[in-house]
Design brief:
Layout: E1 17-22, H1 30-39, E2 43-46, H2 52-56, E3 61-67, H3 78-88, E4 92-96, E5 107-108, E6 116-117, E7 124-125, H4 127-142, H5 158-165, H6 170-194, E8 206-213, E9 221-227, E10 232-240, H7 244-257, E11 261-264, E12 267-270, H8 273-287, E13 295-303, E14 308-314, E15 320-322, E16 329-330, E17 349-352, E18 358-362, H9 367-370, E19 371-374, E20 378-381, H10 383-386, H11 393-406, E21 417-424
Parallel strand pairs: 1-2, 1-3, 3-4, 4-6
Antiparallel strand pairs: 5-7, 8-21, 9-10, 10-13, 11-12, 13-14, 14-17, 15-16, 15-18, 18-21, 19-20
Helix pairs in contact: 5-6
């Protein structure tokens, strides 16, 4: 491992760095600095708003420690974007969320078999355990002996055991295994689609549109549009970090765990949007899921009688209200990521809709089609999206879907894309 660099050095990455410490603080904690010096690992402190430097040169990064202590995640999408972008680059992440008032046991951290650690409840580990986690990430990243023997646990399937015991049959078995795996993924994608709405609740009052485009066979996105009773419709888009099978499995959990109402004997109680999101977060953190625990979500409830829309979000792109003759409007409300902080707060907002209004919910896979947040200018819509400002919700979703299927992007940048929208008639 390399030489320890100054903790305050925040210039661009020019050489391989074992540990990048992402934080809004001006310095690393003293015990962390001592650990790096004692173990002789190279380190660099990098502000959170400069994490894109890692994406520019991911080959120069061993592992990343994200210090989210005291971060106001309810007002900031940065944490979610950081975790998702680093996960796409296959960089091991360790997330700090809360300092513990104990000697040695200094941070809240949950060890897992995945590439990064995200706590649901506060659990502290010693600096020795932290060092072991760093070693695992570095060993996996650098593919060489880091001075400490560390290896991720391997789950062996029955097929792998057969290959080990019958090496002569391995080539033929591998071909059969790959063909079988492709078929299983294809079937898994069909099963996942069975959890989506079979039909949209169109009526004389409201028209719906939806699109669901997985990046691979299965998706890390999930959505639903459901009548709660004769007067209310609940709908949401949720996005699990990453894509493919691990994220898709988490979407099945979300589908079952998200409850819009509670039935007691012959009566029922409708959950307010903030309550729906808060309950889902508590179920996720209480489950102590391994690996893909970070989820964004926006849940809305429409009152068909009053045309009031109530909504709450958890680190998700803001819903967009389109009103004829006016520029698109982001409906902003605070909400932390799901599955990270068990005591996260979610703020509910209500907006009065008018005849002809259209509302669009989408996952971050559609952001490049709709617009991007710029540091100085704020959120800027694309020209293509602005051209659809007066179109029907069906035309908007159809056009954006067509653009998504024909755009030229790098394979690493392909992401799941989900959109749902409504229009008051």
């Amino acid at each position: 491992m390399g030489k320890t660099r100054s903790a305050g050095n925040t210039e661009g990455l020019t050489a391989f760095t074992d540990v990048v410490y992402l934080s809004d603080k001006t310095d690393m904690p003293a015990e962390i600095r001592r650990l790096f010096r004692h173990k002789k690992v190279s380190s660099r402190l990098l502000p959170l708003d400069k994490y894109d430097e890692i994406r520019t040169r991911p080959d120069l990064v061993g592992t990343v420690l994200v210090d989210a202590e005291d971060m106001d995640t309810s007002q900031d999408l940065r944490l979610g974007r950081i975790l998702e972008s680093l996960e796409r680059d296959n960089i091991g992440i360790i997330l700090f969320t809360q300092r513990i008032s104990r000697p040695v046991r200094s941070f809240s951290l949950v060890s897992s078999e995945s590439s990064f650690s995200m706590p649901g409840t506060v659990e502290s580990i010693s600096l020795d355990d932290l060092w072991a986690r760093i070693c695992i990430n570095l060993a996996d990243r650098k593919k060489q002996n880091s001075g400490v023997t560390a290896r991720l646990p391997v789950l062996t399937s029955l097929t792998e055991r057969f290959w080990r015991d019958h090496p002569a049959d391995q080539p033929q078995a591998e071909d059969a295994f790959v063909d079988g795996l492709k078929e299983q993924l294809h079937l898994a994608g069909l099963v996942q689609r069975d959890f989506l709405p079979s039909q949209l609740p169109n009526s004389e009052e409201v028209r719906w549109a939806a699109t669901f485009l997985p990046a691979e066979w299965v998706s890390g996105d999930i959505y639903d549009i459901a009548r709660i009773d004769e007067q209310h419709i609940g709908f949401y888009v949720a996005d699990a970090v990453g894509h493919s099978m691990p994220a898709a499995l988490l979407t099945m959990f979300i589908k079952q765990a998200l409850q819009m109402r509670q039935t007691v004997e012959n009566s029922y109680r409708i959950f307010a949007p903030a309550e729906v999101v808060r309950n889902l977060n508590q179920k996720m953190t209480g489950q102590k899921l391994s690996g893909y625990q970070f989820v964004t979500c926006c849940y809305c409830m429409l009152n068909l009688k009053t045309r009031q829309l109530s909504f709450a979000r958890a680190g998700h792109p803001y819903p967009i209200l389109l009103r004829k003759g006016q520029p698109p409007q982001q409906l902003e409300t605070r909400g932390a990521l799901l599955g990270v902080f068990d005591n996260a707060e979610f703020v509910q907002q209500t907006v009065q809709l008018e005849q002809g209004d259209r509302l669009l919910l989408y996952s971050d896979g559609a952001e490049s089609l709709i617009g991007r947040l710029h540091d100085k200018e704020g959120f800027q819509y694309t020209d293509e999206f602005l051209a659809l400002n007066d179109a029907s919700i069906t035309e908007i979703v159809d056009r954006l879907t067509e653009m998504a299927t024909h755009r030229q992007v790098k394979p690493a940048d392909i992401d799941d894309l989900t959109m749902i929208g409504l229009q008051l008639l």
